[in-house]
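Input set for joint prediction.
Command: fold jointly, output C-alpha cells.
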Amino acid sequence: MGMTHIVDRRLNGKNKSAVNRERFLRRYRHHIKRAVAEAVQKRSITDIERGEKVSIPSRDIEEPIFHHGQGGKREVVHPGNQEFVAGDTIPKPEGGGGQGSGQGQASPDGEGMDEFAFQITQEEFLDFLFDDLELPNLARKKKIRELEKQLEALKSAPEDLDPAFSHEDQIKVLEEEIARLKANVKRIPFIDEIDLRYRQHLKQPQPATSAVMFCLMDVSGSMTQMHKDIAKRFFILLYLFLKKNYKKIEVVFIRHHTSAKEVDEEEFFYSRETGGTIVSSALKLMHKIIESRYSPAEWNIYAAQASDGDNWNDDSPVCGKVLADSILPLVQYFAYVEITPQDHQMLWYEYEKIQERFPQSFALQQIADPGEIYPVFRQLFERKAA
Amino acid sequence: MTNLMDRPTPPGSDQPRAREPISTGSEWTFELIQKYDDEIAKCAAEFGLDTYPNQVEVISAEQMMDAYSSVGMPVGYHHWSFGKQFLSTSKGYQRGQMGLAYEIVINSNPCIAYLMEENTLPMQALVIAHASYGHNSFFKGNYLFRTWTDASAIIDYLVFARNYVAECEERYGVDTVEEILDSCHALMNYGVDRYKRPAPISASEELRRQKEREEYQQRRINDLWRTIPKMDEDDDPVRRRKRYPEEPQENILYFIEKNAPLLETWQREIIRIVRKLAQYFYPQRQTQVMNEGWATFWHYTLLHRMYDKGLVNDGFMLEFLQSHSAVVYQPPFNSPWYSGLNPYTLGFSMFTDLRRICEHPTGEDRQWFPDIAGSDWLETLHFAMKNFKDESFIQQFLSPKVMRDLKLFAIQNDDQEDVYRVTAIHDDPGYRDLREKLARQYNLSYREPNIQVWNVDVRGDRSLTLRHIPVDRVPMGKETEEVLRHVHRLWGFDVHLESVDDGTTVQEYHCPPRELEED
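C-alpha cells >
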C-alpha cells in the first residue's frame, strides 16, 4: 500500500504540442498561405483581430500505410443480429460499393471527410499574410515574459525524479524557445516596444487617442488586381501600426483616376476603372476632407498613398505643391509606395524633392513584389527613429 | 449491468459494511484521491492484482490534449503528424464533440496514469481503478508485454530518441529529418520481428551502443556490397539464382536499416528508433480487446467491492455506472453510431462471462470449457490475462453465451458474388465457426497485408523486391504506390512490390513507376 505517487502536474508546461503544431503549419504553409490570401480578399483591412479557419484536402495530409483495398473475399463479424440465419443472402447495393473494410469512418463533426479543417490564430494569420517577411506575432513579448517566469521557477525547483519531466530537458526547450522568440521580436520594430520609441519622434499627437488613416490609391486602368492586393496588405500594416497606438481609428478611402472620390472599402479595392491619372485630385480631396471632418487639433492624421507611378506629367508639380503647402503641415506622417518593378516616372522625382524638405513627415519607397511589403513598410517607419 | 443489485460477489463480501463512505460530494481534492487510491489498492490486493508502482498525475484538459496527440508517449520527438493529431483533438474537444474524460496510461515502471482536473471524484476513482490497477496489472502480467517491452526502460529510451532526433535536426536540418521520419512512419507496422525476442534496452546503454553501432554498421554495410562479385565475374548459375535474403524477412524496417546501401549512419539510427517504438506499441495493437476488457472488468469489480465495504455511497455508484455503461455500450450493426465491435464491450463481456463460467457453470459451459467450468475464477482470469493475445483469447474463451448476448453474426462479402452471405450466427451450428472468424479478425496478419522482403538484386541494379501474399484474394489498397515512394526514399534504389497469389503474380507496383509499354 501507499506505493502510489500522486503528482499535481497542472502547473507544468502545457505547450508540449506547440512545436509539433508549428511543424504542421510549416509543412502545410502553402495551403495555409492560399487560404489566408483568399481570406484577406474577403476581409476588411480593419478586420484583423481574429484568426482564420483553414481547410486542407485530407488526401494531402494523409500518412500512407500499406493496407487492404476493396475486393477479394472478406468476412466480418458484427453484433446485434435481429433476424438473420446462416445461409441468408442480402443483395448488394447497385453499383458495387460493398462494405469496404467494415470499419466505417464517420466524420465526427459532420464536415466532409475530404477536408481537414483547423483554426489558426490571429498572430499566425498575420504571419502567413506577410509570410515571406516572417512577421512575428503580436503577443510574443508577453509570451517571452511568461516563458522567462517558467524558466526561473524551473531552475529554482528541486529536480523531478521522473525523467519524463526532467528539468534539464525542459530548461533546454524553454531557453531555445525564448531565444527564438527574441530573435523574431527583433525583426518587428513597430509592433512591440520600439513603436513607442518611434512615436516620440512623431509630431506630438494630440489627443493621443484618435487617429484617422487616409488610404489613397490610383485605380486607373494600369493598376491591376495584383497591385491592389499589394496595396491592401500595405494598408493593413499601417492599420496594425496605428492600432497599437490609438484607441479610435477611422479609415478614409480615396480612389482616383482623373478625378478623385471618397468610397467605401469594397469599392476602393474591387471596382475597376479605366483612363488616365491625375494624382493631385486625390490629394486635394484629402485636404478637403481634413478641413471639413478631421481637425488636426483632435485627430492624428496618417496617410498612405499607393500607385503604380503613373501620372499625367503636368500634374506632378501640382502634387508637390499640394503636399507641401496644404497636407504635410496637418499630418503626422505621409507614406508613398510605388508598386512597380519599372523605372520611376515624374511623380517619384517630384516626391523625392518633398522628402528632402519634410524628412520627418514624408517618406517614399518602391515595392516590386509582395515579398517587399513588410521590409518597405519597416523602412518607411523606421526612418522616424533617425 | 447498470443495476446496483446485479454486482459480482468478491471474496469476503460478508464483511460488515463500514459506516461512513470516504466522501459524499463530487469535488475531488488531492487528499481524497489519495484516500480513494489507498482503498482501491486494498481491494486490488484482495483480488491478487500484481502491479507496477503507480504514479498518478493530475493534468489539465490542455495537457490531456498534448498527451493524446503524442499517442500517449510522455516524451516524444517532434513531428508534424503529432501536430496534426493535436489540431484535430483540440478542435473536437473545443466543440464539445469529444470527451477527454478517459484515461491515458503509460506502460512504464512506475506506471503513469493521467487524471484530468475536470473529472468529478467518482470519475477519478474509476480512472484509478481502470488504469492504475487494471491496465497496470495487464502490462505487468501479459506475456506479450513481458516479452516485447521493458517498462522500466521506455521513458529513458524516449528521452534518448527525442534528443537524438533533435540533434539530427540541428545538424542536418528539420526537413531532411522529417523526410526520413515520414518514410519510417509509413512502414512502422512492418518494423517488428514477430518471432524473435528482442533484447531489453535502457537509455544509457542505448547511447553507448549507438556509438558502437555507428562505427560497426557502416563497415558491415560496405562489406556486404563490396564482397558481392561483379556480374561478369560470377557466372555460377546456382549462386546467381540464390536470393538475398535467403529467407523472406517480415521486418522491413530492420532489413532496410541493416542493408540499405546509401543511408547515412544517423539515418539508420532514426529507422531504429521508429522500429523500437513500433516494438513498444506492438503488444498494445494485439491486446486491445483483452487489455480494455481486463481494465473495465476490474474498475467494475473494484468499485463494487468499495460499495460493498460501504466506502462509497449510492450517488457515487450511480454516476460511476452511468460512465461504465457508456463505455461498454455496443451499438448494433444497423445503428448510425455503429463503427465495428467495441473492444471494451467484447473484452468486458468475455472476462465477466469467464468468471461466471467458473462460479456458476451451466451444462453448456461444462461441455465447452471442461477445464475451467467450476475452477477458481481468480486463477482462471489471471491465467487468461497472462498467456493470450486477442486472437488466441477469443479462440480459447469466447463462450456461446457471449455470442448470444451480443447477437454476433458473420457476413461474407465476396466480390465474385452479387450477394452478401450470412455465414454463421449465434446458434449451435454456428458457434465454433463464428468464434474462429472473430478470432481471425484480430490476427494482425489478417488485418494488414502480409508483405515481406523477398529479394535484393545484389548483382544487378540493387533493386529491392517486396512480396505481398494476398489472403482470400484481397488486393493491396490505394495508398500502396505512395508507401512505395517512402520505401524507395529509404532504400535508395528501385523498389518493386509484387502480389503473388498461389505462385501467380496478380499485381505489380514499381517505384519509380514503369514507363507504359509503347504500342
